[in-house]
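Posting here for the record, re: adenosine-5'-diphosphate.
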Amino acid sequence: MLGQMQDWPLRVSRIIDHAARYHARRPVVTRTVEGPVARTDWASIHLRARKLAQALARLGLRKGDVVGCMAWNTARHLEVWYGVPGAGGVLHSLNPRLSHEQLTYIISHAEDGWIFCDADLAPLIAELWPGLPQAKGCIVMTDRAHMPETAPPGALCYEELIAAEDGGADWVTGDEAEACGICYTSGTTGHPKGVVYSHRSNVLHAMAMIQPDMLGFSSNDTVMPVVPLFHANGWSTGFSAPMAGASMVMPGRDLSAPSLWEMLDEGVTITLAVPTVWLMLLAHLRETGRALPHLQRVVIGGSACPKAVIEAFQKVYGVHVLHAWGMTETSPLGSFCSFKPEMAALPDDERLDQQLKAGHPPFTVELAVMDEGDEPMPWDDTSQGRLKIRGPGVVKRYLKETNDVADRESWFDTGDAATMDENGYIRITDRLKDVIKSGGEWISSIDLENMAVSHPDVSEAAAIGVPHPKWDERPILVVVPRPGAEPSKESIIETLRPHFAKWMLPDDILFVEEIPHTATGKISKLTLRKQLAEQGYTLPG
Ligand code: ADP
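Prediction output follows.
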């Protein structure tokens, strides 16, 4: 017997319909690319997304056509976020920090036809244009007065396109399994790979994310995604915030600490970004003596979250930290370190240590730590293995590849090394390619880095393995001192010593002004290793 309930395809257009209907006047505040702070709400974003969908239909967009978008976090970007899938298109989010070569590759590979961009990014698209023969045209997300001098030939003005429509047409409908958006992995080795989210995967992921143990958004929250919408599906915020009827604050292009602080002051209750952003903000707060009066929770993910950051937010500013793990291939969020009763019962200091774990998954995500023979490892908090994941928001196959990337049991190998504890909390110990292998044992680069940045004079640290004739590899630390500080190697080793076995301590510490970062703001160990090799670095003694 089949159930006799209604068919209601899980399409993302329903999310913005819901927000506009039941949370119509909730504010969405943006620092615009043109400069001033602008205010709108879900009802207006909905109407303008409808107009945009009509305009795209008029431009000839057909179901399944891929549309590129290179834009900062703004209300207009949210309109495109819904207008494109609402017109039947597939939105390909573009990271302007990628190299020209990578951008040309991914735009061509995904076959982006129309390409949206913010006014300040139009010159970049114009530079790429000759290498994009498949591109149909560019739509610059501004009004006529702010159209940039340099843009691809025949570029259209977003506000003019919208003004010509009445928003009266319905969304394009269809199966929930249809493609909705594309994000490429950063491709540290080889070409970037396209992850194709479906309407269904985005809706289910957002529903999982608004659960209380996860992002826990409600209509009383004001959400500020500092993480760009173009990075790993925007950590679901473009879907989960309107689904919950939350307000949003969109920080635009300027992600400097003073600008972020001003936007946080718009009443933001929860904000999300990678650790480097928070290191910057905390330094700014220390220097200026400013506080965070509205903020209740801060979500930190994308790389391991240093203990010093968790401690500062919680103890100094009274802001609760949610450490999260995920990847582009998993929609992206897979786990949150929220407190189950077993953790809530711990003394403060022990609980703080537990927060270094990436946490536990929501319903719709299954996680397993497996050994090399694909056997599950014990949930003992110490056995390290490969972290695998499966669920309706996890990639099965990359765009245009012929083979599945998930195995026959649907497990996708994350490339991360992790442990699992008795309560089902994972601890990410490393990316497998970054693990330092010394004398047959594994040293976690993440643990070394985390402890190093707890030194008061260390601003950022990267631990990498350097080839060694006897031990295979030995760890070294590359350290950026805090401005004006001159920490000694010995004092850093002394900070590490109580927490590591002797053989795990770094053989050398190098001081640098800057550590290279990837296009998503993470430490680029690949570049760092290359730089050291070019400088002919060798281990001491
Ligand atoms: P990119 O390769 O562009 O950084 P992703 O955002 O997909 O793209 O990166 C996912 C990877 O980031 C994970 O596989 C993991 O190695 C790392 N990562 C994400 N969150 C955490 C975390 N909380 N702790 C440690 N590593 C993390």
